[in-house]
Specification:
The chain has one domain: Roll (Thiol Ester Dehydrase, Chain A), CATH 3.10.129. The chain has five helices and six strands, in the order H-H-E-E-H-H-E-E-H-E-E. The protein has a six-stranded antiparallel β-sheet. The longest helix is centred in the last third of the chain and has 11 residues. The two termini are 28 Å apart. This is DUF4442 domain-containing protein. InterPro entries: DUF4442, HotDog_dom_sf. Pfam families: DUF4442.
């Protein structure tokens, strides 16, 4: 599936659509930029971004980007996740994801012997002016698929 098609699907996916999350850029499964718009339905009691929405805006991207970049010979799953809140989000916020060839080579090397490989990916959530609102860490489980028996 082309990244452009995946972007359209994600933008109409109910958990994103109804949380105010929009994929702004999804470039060849190597770069993504996501916006979380602050609205009446996704803010908390003190009128800041709901923490679950902040985490949700980062949820599928590292897994999708890694899986599509490595190819069908690999199993890629989210293993763990954590979020650290830094400042109240009182305006639209953005998260960017970038996976480079060096990271993909690290994953290939780590799984070359058939073992699982766990790797953490960090994502900052920032306002348009660059103020840090939260940091999300996602740990991926990566393993090379076993060859099929004849």
């Amino acid at each position: 599936m082309k990244a452009r098609t995946m972007r359209r699907i994600l933008n109409t996916w109910p958990p994103f659509l109804f949380a105010g999350i929009r994929v702004v850029v999804f470039d060849d499964y190597r770069y993504a930029k996501v916006r979380l718009k602050l609205t009446w339905y996704n803010r908390n009691y003190v009128r800041t971004h709901f923490g679950g929405s902040l985490f949700a805006m980062t949820d599928p991207f590292w897994m999708l980007m890694t899986l599509k970049s490595l190819g069908s010979d690999y199993i890629v799953w989210d293993q763990a996740g954590e979020i650290r809140f830094v400042a109240p989000g009182r305006e639209d916020v953005y998260a960017e994801f970038r996976i480079d060839e060096a990271t993909l080579e690290e994953l290939r090397a780590g799984t070359a012997n058939g073992e699982k490989y766990l790797r953490w990916f960090d994502t900052d959530i920032r306002t348009a002016s660059g103020e840090l609102v939260a940091t999300v860490r996602k740990q991926l489980y990566v393993r090379r698929k076993k060859p099929r028996a004849p």
